[in-house]
Specification:
alpha/beta; 6-stranded parallel beta sheet; binds zinc ion
Length: 298
């Protein structure tokens, strides 16, 4: 039995159209009897949470949606560590931009600094949303050893942003256009114990990035194939989505959600949950039976 999670990034960021995406997607999930895990940016663009986002987040929290921390400002793609795959494949310029600012950026990645940034986010969550986050997702998959240590010190025991598969971006014009299953062997395909004892719950894949709707059938097929495989390797599977990717085509995004749910139900593969529930039930900790590899340079 595998527990599946729809995790959606970048809530808290953007204007009314993104608030609408947050609301509509939450309502869609609720209409199917499930809830999502939303990774919410506490200081999007360096600004306090707007009234519109606050109202929407409180509404969703009360409806049982799981809202967790997603970085601090999300101002660039190296907030908590150097740029990482697949962000560097989606936007190759991230590497040159990072190199140009290397000395300045490396000074960010101290435990004290990153912990201070996380504490600011926790304060916003407590004050504006009445939520104590239990999981963290660094923006753009940019992580560092100091980030994991800071999480451990704050008692946040679960992080999620390493990818098992990033085939979900291959439809982009500069990439291969091949939507065939490809999984990395660099990391385990299930939650694993990583730096400072924090559990990394890897992302299975994303099937609803901007532009994916033009290949909707191919993405449904890829999602089913990934699910057929992940249930043989992991008791937890985290699917990634983004508010803006969903808003790019609600039709495709909701079709994908329904197809995934139908595939899981038809095959008796398991159930849907949230990261919060999996942490509270102990299932996330129980799933992390393996150690992660020592691969981070910073
Ligand atoms: Zn993000």
């Amino acid at each position: 039995m595998t527990k599946f999670v729809f995790s959606i990034d970048d809530a808290g960021s953007g204007g009314d159209d993104m608030i609408e995406s947050f609301r509509r997607t939450s309502r869609h999930l609720e209409s199917r009897g499930i809830r999502g895990t939303w990774f919410f940016v506490p200081y999007a663009g360096g600004q306090p949470v707007s009234d519109g986002w606050k109202r929407a987040a409180l509404e969703m929290r009360d409806a049982g949606q799981d809202i967790q921390l997603h970085g601090r400002t999300h101002g660039d793609c190296y907030e908590f560590g150097p740029p990482n795959f697949p962000a560097t494949r989606i936007v190759p310029d991230f590497i040159t931009q990072f190199e140009a600012r290397r000395e300045e950026l490396l000074q960010r990645y101290t435990v004290a600094n990153l912990r201070g940034w996380m504490e600011q986010g926790l304060e916003v969550f407590e004050r504006d949303l009445g939520i104590r986050p239990t999981a963290f997702r660094a923006p753009c998959g940019a992580v560092s050893k100091a980030m994991y240590e800071a999480l451990a010190q704050l008692g946040i025991g679960v992080h999620s942003c390493m990818y098992i598969s990033a085939v979900g971006y291959e439809h982009l014009p500069h990439l291969s256009s091949r939507l065939e299953q490809y999984w990395t062997d660099t990391i385990p395909h299930r939650p694993y114990r990583w730096y400072s004892g924090v559990i990394e719950a890897p992302i299975l894949n994303e099937y609803t990035w901007r532009g994916a709707s033009a290949r909707s059938d191919d993405y449904l097929k890829l999602a089913r194939e990934d699910i057929d495989r992940v249930v043989t390797e992991s008791p937890v599977a985290i699917i990634l989505m983004h508010t803006h990717g969903i808003a790019d085509s609600y039709e495709h995004a909701f079709r994908l959600i329904d197809a995934v749910m139908e595939h899981v139900a038809a095959n008796g593969y398991g159930e849907f949950s949230t990261v919060k529930e999996l942490i509270e039930s102990g299932e996330m900790a129980a799933a992390a039976t393996v150690e992660g590899p020592d691969i981070l340079e910073v």
